[in-house]
Here is the input.
Amino acid sequence: MPAFTTKDQAVDVFTELFEILLNDATFSRIVREENLSAHFVHTKPDLEIFVDSDGVRIDDVPYAAALKIKMSCDTADSLWAGRLLMPIAVAMGKIRIKGSVAKVLEFVPLLHPAFDRYPGIATAAGVGGAH
Amino acid sequence: MLNTLTRHPDEAAPQGVHEPTLTQLPAHVEELRRTAREFAQQRLRPAVQRLDQAPAADFDWELVAEAHALGLTRLVIPRQLGGLGYGELGVAVALEELAAVDAGFALIIGATMLGQAPILLSGDPRIQSRFLPLFAGDDPVLACNAITEDLAGCDLLIPDNAPHAVGVMSARRDGDEYVLSGAKKFITNGKVANYATTFANVDGHGGATGLTCFVVPLDSPGITRGDVADKMGYRSCLGTELLFDEVRVPAENMIGGEGGGVHINIAQMDMARAAVAAISTGVARGALELAIAWCGDRTQGGVKLWQHQFTARKLAEMTAKVDAARLLYLKAAHLADTEVPAPAYEPAVAKLFADRIAIEVATEAMGLMGARGYVRDWGMEKYVREALGARIYEGTPEVLALAITASMYDEGDDDF
Here is the structure.
């Protein structure tokens, strides 16, 4: 059974998650200073998330992001929930990234504040994989 | 006085020259190439013969300290952790410059980056902040990657072989720690590194199917740094046995989770192979440069050697091979800098080709120099010995062929 049953459910969860990150002082400062932007291409259900210092956009890509990251929503759920570790997801091709790897190496550790928050957000939204 | 590499790569790049083109490297990579070339020519070259002919266990910390001061040991580490934030392209270009003078010294730097790679790949700020800032201090720090064992070489590199691996180092969970026992062999920098990214098989898994990566400080109780291998080439770097006797490692030092070692190792290799291809390219270039100098100086039959048609043909073929090898590794390194996971095909092709042409070019270059090519004083025979080395580490031609053909038959997702 897929983790997300509807696109709206995925939109709600990931929007809240990235807004939490953008409210994190370190994350928002580095995103702004380094001009970082990320374009997440999620599949099953399909949605695109664009994150930069201006905020979170859904299915609205205003410019080519520094990083383009593709994964299924199931992979995203496993990753944020901590059941799938980033290096393994990358090595197995479950996550594919295009863009400067130097930026990836800077960006990924910044995501850590969201890992603690995801299980609560997912459970509240009734995401299957969180249970 | 050589300049320390301190500038932000983006700041060093003039407008519009952040990305490599077919004919131009980014400005910050060109700056790195100049620095590495000056170090190699001015500081390393005068020491090459001494390093090559010294006893196997000799190690020149002074030269390593100079390279460290320039920033060569922290090229790939993100800037917020004290590194320089260069990608694989910069690393490969720098290693070609070092290897054109001394492949062993290039491998000291390359092996350190290999030991940094799993920590970078982890994406875990906790383990990154514990180990990566070590390379930004005043004193030189080296790392190593410990995977090869006496009975298990390619069995640890080829996933399909993992169930058949025998005698693999074991890891046993005990509370908040893992206990590692076993031995690693031919570990570059093992004698001198601060820590080793170490691969062990978690108890209860057959063969190497539970292969797991741990970051292990090499001053941990129970570790013995064994004898240094007496190698035919690459003598300035030390290949060493590492013995683990009930070595306790905190669970937080595990990377990629239990059983994730195979994936970590493959990702590491895909990242590293372009750099090793660059080392082979450097060896070929070094031999070619000696041959060019000799053929431009030596007169036979009333004309310079290079004016003899047979010699000209050989030199032309050699330089074409070096140029082709360089283009292949630059392409592979660029892709490794712009795609995650790094592609398997291009780095393997680059290494396969560069390893082969290094042997061809060095052998031909030795022949052009006649007897002088065969004696130690002229330095050519060292290139021949070192050209043979890269066929062994980071993937033999046979392992590379499997990676290449697997990519050729892979019907993966190409729409991204």
User: Anything to note?
Assistant: DSSP finds 13 helices and eleven strands in chain B. The mean pLDDT of chain B is 93. The CA atoms of residues 16 and 350 of chain B lie 27 Å apart. The longest strand of chain B covers residues 177-188.
